[in-house]
Amino acid sequence: MIKDKIKSLASQYKSEIIANRRHLHANPELSFHEHETAAFVQNQLKSIGITELETKADTGIVALIKGKNPDKKIIALRGDMDALPIFEQNEVSYKSTKPGVMHACGHDVHTASLLGAAKILNDVKEEFEGTIKLIFQPGEELIPGGASLMIKDKALENPKPQAIIGQHVMPLIPVGKVGFRKGMYMASADELYITVKGKGGHGAMPETLVDPVLIAAHMIVALQQVVSRNASPKIPSVLSFGRIEALGATNIIPNEVKIQGTFRTLNEAWRAKAHQHMISIAKGIAEGMGGEVDFEVRKGYPFLKNAEELTNRAQNAAIEYLGKENVEDLDIWMAAEDFSYYTQEMDGCFYRLGTRNEAKGITSGVHTPTFDIDEDALEIGAGLMAYLAVKELDA
Questions:
Q1: Which PANTHER family does this entry report, sorted A to Z (predicted)?
Q2: Binding-site sequence positions for Mn(2+)
Q3: Are 144 and 246 within one domain?
Q4: Average pLDDT estimate for 151-168
């Protein structure tokens, strides 16, 4: 059976997949600067006999594995390659060698898993019909998102896939398990940059000032009504402010205050309305209190919707591969992912790979300086992705 063969190959190549992951983890590169990573990926692909390669969006790579009757059906598999601006605090042999840059979101896992899947699929290409397109993309962590640039650079053309599958580490799920969700899964994500302008001066003479700190405080509280009183309770929405900069002192009122935040939702029509609500509320408060405001909405990734039938097939295939007890149903998650751009173009399935192991102390969340994985997940990450591709080609 192809399942048993893929499992055997995943086990056989496990140490190599781990070595690739450790190399990537020790040599992280920030979004859209993945030059060394891209060269490493190309060399790895060529070493296993995959030579149909193209560079896309400067540091992205597209490669093809052709089975029998290669035009019958095309399936894409995606992995992202960029790291985050974080100082790693793990004391491990593969710790980042670049201070202030770290694979804290598991993209080293995604890239190593896709390389492993590529090696497995290349070994069994005489046993499936169709073509598997490998997409190694840059810049998932940074607007406008590497996926959007890969699409603009025609990564989904010549040949055009009928569907795309991607995976992402999940430190909340124990190693050995995976998670799926059909339909709406992840939120859109917009960045908010607000500058409140007033007239600063001595804190002892408030009657001579237009206090932008006070205006900003009213604004932050009032903007919460966008979610609590304007959004339908049926539409998940989140509005959060994570940075406030008022460079005054105990007795100095500054001329301006800068605020940064994020808005996330799962409905594009409401998303557009919410932007206008926020701008209107902010301007009204600022003008009513004698100040001004510049309100920039930096539009990020769209919401991510997993195709129902594709995801149902993938989840059933995962049950075949791992057993029903190791396949979980996921809830909606208000984080964002630029894989969503691919799902705007074709059917997509984005699932989660469990990496947690409490016995080993591996419990840190993504985007933290102590994030790490149980590397047993890599055997599943590579093998399952290969199996999902083969099963979907045969669907």
A1: METALLOPEPTIDASE, PUTATIVE (AFU_ORTHOLOGUE AFUA_6G09600)-RELATED, PEPTIDASE M20 FAMILY MEMBER
A2: 105, 107, 141, 168, 367
A3: no
A4: 98
**The domain containing residue 357 runs over which residues?**
2-185+303-393
Q: Which residues are annotated as a binding site?
A: 105, 107, 141, 168, 367
Tell me how far apart the alpha carbons of residues 389 and 122 are, in angstroms, rounded to a whole number. Answer: 12
Confidence at residue 381, expressed as pLDDT on a 0 to 100 scale: 98
d(CA 30, CA 141): 9
Which of the four pLDDT bands, split at 50, 70 and 90, describes residue 14? very high
288: Cβ contacts below 8 Å, ≥ 6 apart: none
Q: Is residue 176 domain-shared with residue 55, that is, in the same domain?
A: yes
Residue 333 burial by Cβ neighbours in a 10 Å radius (0-12, 13-18, 19+): middle
How far is it, in rounded angstroms, from Cα 97 to Cα 275? 41
pLDDT digit string, tens, across residues 81-131: 999 999 999 999 999 999 999 999 999 999 999 999 999 999 999 999 999
Count of domains observed in the chain: 2
Do 96 and 12 lie in one domain? The reply is yes
**Same-domain check for residues 15 and 150:** yes
pLDDT bracket for residue 220 (50, 70, 90): very high
Question: How many CB atoms sit inside 10 A of residue 138's CB?
Answer: 30
Confidence (pTM): 0.94
95 and 142 in a common domain? yes
Distance, in Å, from the CA atom of 244 to the CA atom of 88, rounded to the nearest integer, reads 26
Question: 292 and 329 share a domain?
Answer: no
CATH code of residue 366? 3.40.630.10
Same domain, yes or no: 160 and 178: yes
